[in-house]
Amino acid sequence: MNKAWWKESVVYQIYPRSFMDSNGDGIGDLQGIISKLDYIKNLGIDVIWLSPVYKSPNDDNGYDISDYQDIMDDFGTMADWEQLLVEVHERGMKLIMDLVVNHSSDEHPWFLEARQSKDSKYRDYYIWRKGKNGKEPSNWYSNFGGSAWEYDEATDEYYLHLFSKKQPDLNWCNPSLRKEIYNMMKWWLEKGIDGFRMDVINFISKPENFEDGDLKPGKKYASGSKFYRNGPHIHDYLQEMNREVLSHYDVMTVGEMPGVTPELAKLYTSEDRKELNMVFQFEHMGLDNGENGKWDLKPLKLADLKANLSKWQLALEDTGWNSLYFNNHDQPRSVSRFGNDKKYRVESAKMLATLLHMMKGTPYVYQGEEIGMTNIRFDSIEDYRDIEIINMFKEQTEAGIPHQQIMESIYAKGRDNSRTPMQWDASPNAGFTTSTPWLKVNPNYIEINAEAEISNANSIYHYYRKLIQLRKKYDVIVYGKYELLLPEHQEIFAYTRTLGDEKLLVICNFYEGQPMFELPEHITYQSAELLISNYPEKLTHELESIQLRPYDASVFLLK
Ligand code: NOJ
């Protein structure tokens, strides 16, 4: 396997709206980020991924872009952004930008022109179709609820929007559109950025004809995902983008790809195909979804998580590369979701971090994860800001679902769980802002905050630092071969990583019971060194048989 800087990096994701407010308007901004760069650097981070900071009417917090080459007023100016880039580079870190080109905002000049008339030069930059039998061109639902088609009276056609109706899908079949996008990407790369995280990039190739999806009983709209995920020309477009743009720069690329399988991920990321470096896959994020999707709650089974993550580790062993994550701005907080955010918050947050950071792939830390931030429970729907939550609340209320059941879904899976402001210290509003924050701060900031974490040597923050330092020190963590141990065990997730004559043994107890870990006989060694553990007291037992503590996590280096 070839070595590469992006394989050896740890990425930190910033959701700018919620990170740090420097000017007291209740919204995070670029100067706020600049003021916290030392904090990120001290964690040991190599690459910062900035969620969108472009001009946007904020229907979906910046994922609806009205100008790809300018900065949102809420966040500052282009001069602020340029200062950010310089300061990131001065600290020896890199900056990757979010590329949101499956759709634009409906306030983008292209769309404003396109909807004026069928003859507009920009009409074909979007996807327009006539209605079918007095209805939408297909029965697809939008990922944010309702139909994926919006009727436009002026021209008597519908346009496609896989997300909100203020996020019309761009038509990648059109070569001029593709060219404009490539030019825009070059413009940012010429400014000196270090790569892109590409938003739902495997959705960009739509079929020529829009067939209906399979309607579930009692539903008005169906999923069209089998038609638009990994669509007909997706590899052509990515290879063209690579040829035209990416191959000219030493950059990192990560494609966000709902519905990607390991087989497809190999096509997207194998080096000889010249598409992307790595994908963000979603299979492990769907293991606690019931039959009706994310709001349909189902407890996670450890066996499923082990099988899934191991499948990905093995599939991309020699070709391609994994992204490793449990958190981002679309997911609830992992310590609340998979750990125990009360009695064992610290132990379980460290256990989850160990499990992830010792795997093969590039780890992503989402702001606040490194201090064990938890989910939020607002009493009133009025306190939520996320369009997905608000639309789903309305839809489910209209469908007669009991209020409390809807709220429980939001508490478990809502995206605002991870978007409450970063908890910096115990001062009002967690030190995030001096005024009213755009989304309420989690009241637990008095105990859970970065300042307290930094001053406590046993904190989650220092544990992440140590995990990241280990990755820098031991090649086996980056490049070693993965092997799952005890696949049938109900409570323990254990695996090894092997490179040359070095072997890592990773043992994680996923629950609060105290199971025995029995070392499989084929794992032999001369010496064992404990590299990290989430309990201050060392295990005194022999490695062959260990009584684990609640949420125990340890990593040994075997030689
Ligand atoms: C994925 C992004 O991560 C999410 O936040 C956004 O709402 C959708 N794509 C649409 O851009």
UniProtKB/TrEMBL annotation:
Pfam families: Alpha-amylase (PF00128), SusG_C (PF23915). This is oligo-1,6-glucosidase. It comes from the Bacteria. Gene3D superfamilies: Glycosidases (3.20.20.80), Golgi alpha-mannosidase II (2.60.40.1180), Oligo-1,6-glucosidase, Domain 2 (3.90.400.10). InterPro entries: GH (IPR017853), GH13_cat_dom (IPR006047), Glyco_hydro_b (IPR013780), O16G_dom_2 (IPR045857), SusG-like_C (IPR056300). It comes from Metabacillus niabensis. GO terms for molecular function: oligo-1,6-glucosidase activity. Belongs to the glycosyl hydrolase 13 family. Residues 13-419 form the Glycosyl hydrolase family 13 catalytic domain. The keyword Endoplasmic reticulum does not apply. It catalyses: Hydrolysis of (1->6)-alpha-D-glucosidic linkages in some oligosaccharides produced from starch and glycogen by alpha-amylase, and in isomaltose. The keyword Acetylation does not apply. It is an enzyme of class 3 (hydrolase). Its EC number is 3.2.1.10. Keywords: Glycosidase, Hydrolase.
